[in-house]
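Below is how a single chain appears once it has passed through the pipeline. First comes the sequence as given, then the structure the pipeline wrote out for it. We keep one example in the README because the format questions we get most often are answered faster by looking than by reading.
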Amino acid sequence: MTKPADIRVKSADELGALLIDLRKEQFNLRFQQATGQLEKTGRAVQVRRDIARVKTILAERLRAAAPKA
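Resulting structure:
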């Protein structure tokens, strides 16, 4: 599990790379689950939540950078 404080210190490029890695891991976990090879079933939930954390922080930064009308 990645903590939000650890995510916030990363740059936007690093967060983009982390998001890609997490999505690849999520795909692999789904594939393992479909074939019956998944041993750590809780890892899929952790990855999904980590993806949500990264996307939330990216959205916060985007909103903060946008000019207020």
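The CA atoms of residues 25 and 47 lie 8 Å apart.

See the next section for the split statistics.
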